[in-house]
Design brief:
With about 60 residues, the protein is mainly α. The chain has one domain. It is built from two helices and no strands. The longest helix is centred in the N-terminal third of the chain and has 24 residues. The radius of gyration is 25 Å and the shape is rod-shaped. The chain starts with 6 loop residues before the first helix and ends in a 5-residue tail after the last helix.
Length: about 60
Amino acid sequence: MADILSLSKARKSKARADKEAAAAENRAKFGRSKAQKAVDESRKSAAEKMIDAHKREP
């Protein structure tokens, strides 16, 4: 004989598991440390300075 299940509890637990999986995916995709953000910002500003230094004035 099968065990009795509460369908609402099963739905809620599945929804929680789906949310957690999506959160883990977003952490991997968008999560960066403060140090990584600082490195990216410094590289970006260095590139902008180099481009500005090579511009010609009309």
